[in-house]
From TrEMBL:
It comes from Shigella dysenteriae serotype 1 (strain Sd197). Gene3D superfamilies: YidB-like. It comes from the Bacteria. InterPro entries: YidB (IPR045372), YidB-like (IPR027405). This is DUF937 domain-containing protein. Transmembrane segments: none annotated. The lineage of its organism: Bacteria, Pseudomonadati, Pseudomonadota, Gammaproteobacteria, Enterobacterales. Pfam families: YidB (PF20159).
Length: 132
């Protein structure tokens, strides 16, 4: 099963709200470029490079690693959006963020359109996959 199939499968299972909340949260953090810079400066550059790469397979990351790189307050904000605690939010982010970044960077870098309007770009990726 490919990345888009996984994302769309989750979307169809009622997880669209989670994706929308994560994409909205990323925008609140300053956008995808700012988030990528935070991950890089937080010591996750090697992991991040696998998410951006055109190669198969994203290296996994733990919720604790993301919380350390992004800050507890930022992850807590996501938890509030999702109605879950910080630990659950960081686990969800660890599961979904690699897929989202990978999907937004099909050529190995995040598209300018995604930088300008992440929420629309992310939802368009799902929409495009659903209605091919």
């Amino acid at each position: 099963m490919g990345l888009f199939d996984e994302v769309v499968g989750a979307f169809l299972k009622g997880d669209a709200g989670k994706y929308q909340a994560i994409l909205s949260w990323v925008e609140e953090q300053g956008g995808i470029q700012v988030l990528l810079e935070k991950l890089q400066s937080g010591g996750l550059g090697a992991i991040l490079s696998t998410w951006l790469s055109n190669q198969q397979g994203n290296q996994s990351v733990s919720g604790e690693q993301l919380e350390s790189a992004l800050g507890t307050n930022a992850v807590s904000d996501l938890g509030q959006k999702l109605g879950v605690d910080t630990s659950t939010a960081s686990s969800l982010l660890a599961e979904q963020l690699p897929k989202i970044i990978d999907a937004l960077s099909p050529q190995g870098e995040v598209s300018p359109q995604a930088n300008n309007d992440l929420l629309s770009s992310g939802m368009e990726l799902l929409k495009g996959k659903l209605f091919r």
